[in-house]
Design a protein that fits this description.
Radius of gyration: 24 Å
InterPro entries: Papain-like_cys_pep_sf (IPR038765), UBA (IPR015940), UBA-like_sf (IPR009060), UBAC1 (IPR052476), USP (IPR028889), USP_CS (IPR018200)
Oligomer: single chain
Catalytic activity: Thiol-dependent hydrolysis of ester, thioester, amide, peptide and isopeptide bonds formed by the C-terminal Gly of ubiquitin (a 76-residue protein attached to proteins as an intracellular targeting signal)
Pfam families: UBA (PF00627), UBA_7 (PF22562)
GO biological process, one term: proteolysis
Order of helices and strands: EEEHHHHHHHHEEEEE
Structural class: alpha+beta
Distance between the termini: 30 Å
Largest sheet: 6 strands, antiparallel
Number of helices: 8
Strand content: 15-25%
Protein name: Ubiquitin carboxyl-terminal hydrolase 14
């Protein structure tokens, strides 16, 4: 949910967005009950089974934003394709790094596929301690530049967290041991909200439900909050109930 918009001249403007957040969330009806009668699991398809690599087309949203900045349309298409449509920033970085390529003005091949990634560059990032899947994504987003790929990883912590989650959950037995299943009911425990009229002023504060009362944490100031802004949070925290 967007809390800010960019106005003319790239000036950020804060939006007051209200969210109706319940005290208790029940998602038990969304729980999977496993394989049911007359259902069958889809086969696992491993990469490199002889199937043709999917053709990658440029994301026109990314291309349009780059063109609006004054870049050549064809160059923008190539940038989007060579960064696997990861985003405007990644595509622009690729553009700036490849503007003088001898084939930058060559037409895009109709048989264009997912960009090839140099194995040695993947190994370099893996040697830094990154997971191989994350290294591949970063290299695609940076056009194959190792330094920019490392910077992309540090600038996108959510991508790193998702990779760690995939590794953690790769073994079903380990997950069952470390993360026992529980109920599907969750109680609102806390939230983070922003105090201020714009993106240029104010700061973030936290509200925590403690002993049945809401407490506000505002830097060194801590006190009881009679009317916590439960509908204006930027980040919400829930705890799972036992039943």
């Amino acid at each position: 949910m967007r809390k800010f918009v960019m106005e003319e001249g790239w000036v950020p403007k804060k939006l007051d967005v209200y969210v109706d957040v319940p005290d208790i969330i029940d998602i038990r009806n969304m729980r999977s009950n496993g394989l049911q009668p007359r259902e069958e699991l889809l086969p696992e398809t491993a990469a490199g089974d002889g199937e043709e690599s999917p053709k990658l087309l440029a994301d026109e949203v990314i291309v349009a934003q780059l063109v609006s900045m004054g870049f050549n349309y064809l160059h923008c298409q190539k940038a989007a394709i060579n960064t696997s449509n990861c985003g405007v920033e990644e595509a622009m970085n690729w553009l700036l790094a490849h503007m003088n390529d001898p084939d930058i003005d060559s037409p895009i091949s109709q048989d264009v596929q997912t960009p090839h990634i140099d194995r040695s560059k993947i190994d370099t990032l893996v040697s830094f301690g990154f997971e191989e899947e994350l290294a591949c994504r970063a290299l695609k987003a940076s056009g194959g530049n190792v330094e920019q790929a490392a910077e992309w990883i540090f600038s996108n912590p959510s991508a790193s967290a998702a990779s760690d989650m995939d590794v953690t959950t790769s073994s079903g037995a380990a997950v069952d041991t470390l993360l026992p299943d529980g109920g599907g009911r969750y109680r609102l425990l806390g939230l983070v909200s922003h105090i201020g009229t714009s993106t240029h002023c104010g700061h973030y504060v936290a509200h925590i439900l403690k002993d049945g009362r809401w407490v506000i944490f505002n830097d060194e100031k801590v006190g009881i909050s009679k009317n916590p802004p439960l509908d204006m949070g930027y980040l919400y925290f829930f705890e799972r109930l036992e039943s």
